[in-house]
Amino acid sequence: MAASRDKYSVLLPTYNERENLPLIVWLLVRSFEESGNDFEIIVIDDGSPDGTQEIAEQLIKIYGSDKILLRPRAKKLGLGTAYIHGMKHATGDFIIIMDADLSHHPKFIPEFIRKQKEGNFDIVSGTRYTGNGGVHGWDVKRKLISRGANFLTQVLLRPGASDLTGSFRLYRKEVLQKLIEKCVSKGYVFQMEMIVRARQLGYSIGEVPISFVDRVYGESKLGGNEIVSFLKGLLTLFATT
User: Fold this and answer.
1) How far, CA to CA in Å, does 27 sit from each of 19, 198, 239?
2) 10 Å Cβ neighbour count for 139?
3) What is the mean pLDDT of residues 34-50?
4) Beta strands of the chain (E only): which ranges?
5) Cα–Cα dist 175/116, whole Å
6) How does strand 205-209 pair with strand 123-127?
7) 28, 146, 148, 218: which has the highest count of C-beta atoms within 10 A?
């Protein structure tokens, strides 16, 4: 693929990702260098007690302060505000959001970029539910919860995208800014609302099948409270969109 003249800012919200951060950054750097696309990686750490910020500072020394930026916050303040905080420091034309826990492999990013160019899309979303996309490392219960949540969302909201709860996406910077201004949800519902609002506002969405791999180090943050919050948020979106 021919290299794009555009610049891509990767936003990596982190909390206790000391083990994962060096590997995800290495994979990101390799992917961008192999494809020849200009990039920067912005680490937004929410006061991790495990030394994540110290690791990020070491990575800056290795890769350079033009490629790795650490923009920490004092405590956990939510995903939406993490993106807002990261975008204040982003110099790219496009924003890539992804998890820092190795669930999302950077090898798919060149495909996101290619897809965006092909269709001139405002958003490209990674999907686990079409083509050769899939999930690895989840037990049956977790898969059923995810499939069930996605099915409910499709039936109630008819969003025109196959994977609403995923968090591996590419946005035009100005589009992401406008969507975050419109979104009111927190937690896992936030990603879903982003796509629903995008359709409302007439933004175009392309999809790339991805393989999602359960986190390598650390604990998953999905629990009973998150499931209840998801259902409440889904019903709120159904009533207001």
Assistant:
1) 14, 29, 41
2) 8
3) 96
4) 7-14, 38-45, 68-70, 94-97, 123-127, 134-136, 169-172, 205-209, 211-213
5) 13
6) parallel
7) 28
Which of 156-165, 173-182, 205-214 shows the lowest mean pLDDT across its residues? 156-165
Please give the Cα distance from 233 to 188 (Å, whole number).
9
CB 30 within 8 A of CB 59: no
Answering whether pTM is above 0.85, one says no
**DSSP state at residue 108:** G
- Name all contacts of 229-232 with Cβ < 8 Å and 24+ positions apart: 229/186, 229/187, 229/188, 229/189, 230/149, 230/165, 230/187, 230/188, 230/189, 232/189
Contact by Cβ (8 Å): 112, 94: no
Split at pLDDT 50, 70, 90, the class of 76 is: confident
Instruction: Return d(Cα 64, Cα 41) in angstroms, integer.
Output: 11
Nearest in space to 12 (alpha carbons), one of 123, 189, 135, 26: 26
d(CA 5, CA 17): 31
In the predicted model, is pLDDT for residue 59 greater than 90?
A: yes
Which tens digits make up the pLDDT trace of 109-125?
A: 999 999 999 999 999 99
